[in-house]
Design a protein that fits this description.
Layout lengths: L5 H7 L25 H9 L13 H14 L3 E5 L2 H10 L7 E5 L4 H10 L6 E5 L4 H6 L5 E7 L11 H10 L3 E5 L4 H4 L9 E5 L13 E5 L1 H14 L5 H11 L2 H19 L5 E5 L9 H7 L6 E6 L3 H10 L4 E2 L9 E3 L11 H7 L5 E5 L5 H14 L2
Helix pairs in contact: 3-10, 13-15
């Protein structure tokens, strides 16, 4: 077949079948691999021959997982990591050195901002934070020593949309590496590679797993960009376990079907909340009232499974809403089959000070919903009942 669809690639990309002719890829729970002879071992270690030697470097399960993501994200190479944060950290430190400068979106996950603002400066790396949608700020922040532009789109948790084509162009003009966290969109809804982005990263813990079971991450890009990341992971050890890779690879088989349902449910809830008298405003990329609607439609197949909204009142109002929910889980995770409600200001972004929260657009009465796969009527009844009790 010359051209294969997303769903078929996700299901039919598998590790080489063994002599046992298994239909489903087995688990390769081994720390190391044997060599045919001494010469073979030497050749694998010096790189003149390809092969597995140690699961910190490669394993059939992690190889299958990454090969799927490379095909789905349209990149040549990739490396699997122990978690999404390992992917974030590796994608930055594999390229920087003392004296370099990074420009990053201030509309990013709290732990990502912590790395940029508190860990990297100890290594002599400077940073500038800009609003994701401010084109002028991105351009004016570029310096001679700027090495990386880093962002999420849609952003966590305010679902702002970055113009990937614009950012890719300014990176190429200034010899800057562009890194995009595509976790919220997944490769089913958005491919940063379509817009010339150098590196795409994922927290596979979220939608790629989709059932809240395992941690994992991935970094995808050209062979040139992945080699430094691979070398860093190989020596520092933040690699993905074969078991988690096996789970994640299996999960990708249902990613398209799950994302269709996540997006359908989320769109229905966002539209309903947008008319609710106790809701100040609703954030969802595919709401026509959003300023970034046209850009979201250009870059994304559907609007995603996250909905943000501000309840009328204050922090106590938000807490009352959460405490009265019966069907939604209260946790900081997202991308699960089960719907989740989160108060970002006191959880995922609690390490930010008041000014940083304001800059990121996170108010004390803001709620993030990760809309699951349950019956949509049941979800709406649960939220509506809680809102009524919050009056």
């Amino acid at each position: 077949m010359d051209k294969v669809s997303f769903e078929t690639l996700a299901i039919r990309t598998q590790a080489t079948q063994s002599e046992h002719r298994e239909h489903s890829t087995p688990l390769f729970l081994t720390s190391s691999f044997t060599f045919e002879n001494a010469e073979h071992g030497s050749a694998i270690f010096n790189g003149s021959e390809q092969g597995n030697l140690y699961s910190r470097f490669s394993n059939p399960n992690t190889d299958e997982f990454i090969r799927k993501l490379c095909l789905l994200e349209k990149y040549d190479a990739g490396i699997a990591t122990a978690s999404g944060m390992a992917a974030v950290y590796t994608s930055l430190v594999a390229f920087i050195q003392q004296g370099d400068h990074i420009i990053a979106s201030k509309n990013s996950f709290g732990n990502t901002l912590y790395i940029i603002q508190h860990i990297l400066p100890k290594m002599g790396v400077e940073y500038t934070l800009v609003d994701l949608e401010d084109h002028t700020a991105w351009q004016e922040s570029i310096r001679d020593n700027t090495k990386i532009i880093y962002l999420e789109t849609p952003s966590n948790p305010t679902l702002k949309i970055a113009d990937l084509e614009f950012l890719s162009n300014i990176c190429k003009k200034n010899n800057i590496i562009s890194i995009v966290d595509n976790c919220f969109a997944t490769p089913y809804l958005q491919n940063p590679s379509d817009f010339g982005i150098d590196i795409c990263i994922h927290s596979a813990t979220k939608y790629i797993d989709g059932q809240g079971r395992v941690l994992g991450g991935a970094i995808l890009g050209s062979n040139e960009h992945i080699k430094p990341c691979y070398n860093f992971i190989r020596r520092t050890g933040a690699c993905l376990s074969p078991f988690n890779a096996w789970i994640l690879s299996k999960s990708i088989e249902t990613l398209a079907m799950r994302m269709d349902r996540h997006c359908s449910n989320a769109m229905t809830i966002a539209t309903w909340l947008d008319q609710h008298p106790q809701v100040e405003n609703v954030i969802y990329p595919f709401l026509t009232s959003m300023e970034s609607y046209a850009l979201a439609k250009k870059q994304m197949k559907l609007g995603g499974g996250l909905v943000g909204f501000t309840i009328k009142g204050n922090k106590n109002s938000a807490f009352n809403l959460l405490n009265n929910l019966k069907l939604h889980s209260l946790t900081a995770n997202l991308g699960d089959t089960r719907s989740i409600a989160t108060h970002p200001a006191s959880t995922t972004h609690s390490k930010l000070d008041e000014k940083q929260l304001i800059d990121a657009g996170i108010s004390s009465n803001f709620i993030r919903l990760s809309v699951g796969l349950e019956n949509i009527d049941d979800l709406i009844i649960d939220i509506d009942s809680s809102l009524k009790k919050t009056k």
